[in-house]
Amino acid sequence: MVGFGGRTLILLTLKPTGNTSQPFSGSFARPQHFQTADSVSYSHINGDVETEPITASEWKDGSLSLTVVNPADPSDKDSYLLSVQDNDHALMQLLGVPLPPISLVRSRRPVVVSTDWAPDRTYSPDDDAPSNAEMRAIFEEDQKVRQPSFKIDWPVVGKSDAERRQATFKLLRSGALHTGEDFTWAAFLFQHGSGPNDYLLAHTLAMIAVKKGYGDALWIATATLDRYLQSIKQPQIYGTQFLTPNDLPTTQDPYDRTLISDSLRRQLGVPSLSAQQEQTKQYDVERKK
User: Fold this and answer.
1) pTM of this structure
2) Which of 122, 156, 183 is the last residue of a domain?
3) Domain final residue pick, 90, 122, 154
4) Contact, 79 vs 96, CB < 8 A?
5) What are the tens digits of pLDDT across the range 195-253?
6) Quick one: how many helices (H) and strands (E) in the chain?
């Protein structure tokens, strides 16, 4: 089987026949539609469960050749090569298609193909992994030094920010981050960077979190793009960035207020233009206290 987060996507059932000419019968079950580019992550999963019977099987050089047939169209056949790795793992290659083999895991209990998939989400083995405790701790320290109750010494914070980014980058390089939370926390760390590349990396990390179905990452995805645009002397487009120059009113400029409508901002969890104007006024009031 192939499964994510307690759901089963692909289910291969094999039943010994005792017949050497066709050693196994069984079926191959999956949702009607899905997409994959790497046989690891899957998206656009929808439709009824389709169960295709195995109509032919044969051992070939230590691997099991399987042919399945679409029950609604006997001329629609697919051939796979199943290679057993150990008692609980196998690789299943769809012949004639330039994709890596599918990794299958033996289920020790009865399962059925799930139907409660979100078609706009991408699923991957990372869905079963917990969020990284070290990344959480780095993020919490980043937020702690920015609390209103914390007296901010920006040169000291800038130095600690750089150290936290370095620690986060090591986690990224080692493949230690897996969940939408992980990538959102990392996005905030690089949002507090020092140049365009930091902000562009932050935006990429936020987009990965969104891809993993973590809706809370939408705001940081917009904020990272706005900050990147401003860092390369271009106007922001969502209105997430507020600048408070010494002895001057708070400003969002440069800001292209016409490209993105309020209805699109609402979809992304970004305040409307009028709400942003009120936020600007509030910043100025707080600065005078």
Assistant:
1) 0.75
2) 122
3) 122
4) yes
5) 999 999 999 999 999 988 889 999 999 999 999 999 999 999 999 999 988 889 999 99
6) 7, 8
